Amino acid sequence: MSVTIYINYNGNCREAVEYYAMVFKTEKPVMMLFGDLPSNDSTVMPDELQGRILNAVLHIQGTMLMFSDVPPDRPAIIGNNTSIVISFKDVDELKAVYGKLEAGGTVIMALQETFWTKCYGYLTDKFGVNWMLTLEK
Predict the structure, then answer these.
(1) What are the strands of the beta sheet with 2-9, ordered from one edge?
(2) Does the pLDDT of residue 97 top 80, yes or no?
(3) Res 42: pLDDT
(4) How far apart are CA 117 and CA 119, in angstroms?
(5) What's the rounded Cα separation, in Å, for the pair 70 and 94?
(6) Distance of CA 54 to the CA centre of its chain
(7) CB 29 within 8 A of CB 57
(8) Distance between CA 12 and CA 69 in Å, rounded?
(9) pLDDT tens, 41-79?
(10) pLDDT classification of 98: cutoffs 50, 70, 90
(11) 104-126 pLDDT tens trace
């Protein structure tokens, strides 16, 4: 199991990640745009999202940090724009932890298969902490 911090931005993710890469003298950040998502006939990607960052990764002092722009209909609020990502090796453990965190919380994305993993869920627990639970490849 590993833990990662995930930070969301309102359209200036690229600027922030490139800044942090310079500050911490990391390798060039790896970035994926919303426009790079696999096409899906049932989902229409708004033009304003095409060039925004879907996911960016930096390794700072041995710790992976992840970053993303958010869709305009779900703006990031400073202080509420950070999530803790837990990567699991065991799907049953992931589901058990998700079920406990879900109690009294708010589901943002129910457990499901995505293009990057067989099991992923995103929720806010009853204390207001955002959690992204994912199955390692």
Answers:
(1) 30-33, 53-60, 63-69, 2-9, 82-88, 130-135, 120-124, 106-112
(2) yes
(3) 62
(4) 5
(5) 25
(6) 8
(7) yes
(8) 7
(9) 566 777 888 899 999 999 987 889 999 999 888 888 877
(10) very high
(11) 999 999 999 999 999 999 999 88
**Per-residue tokens: 39:** 């096409």
Q: Show the tokens assigned to 4.
A: 């990662």
What is the 3 state secondary structure string of the chain?
A: CEEEEEEEECCCHHHHHHHHHHHHCCCCCEEEEHHHCCCCCCCCCCHHHCCCEEEEEEEECCEEEEEEECCCCCCCCCCCCEEEEEEECCHHHHHHHHHHHHCCCEEEEEEECCCCCCCEEEEECCCCCEEEEEECC
Both tokens of 97, joined, read: 């932890």
Reading the block at residue 66, the tokens are 């992840």
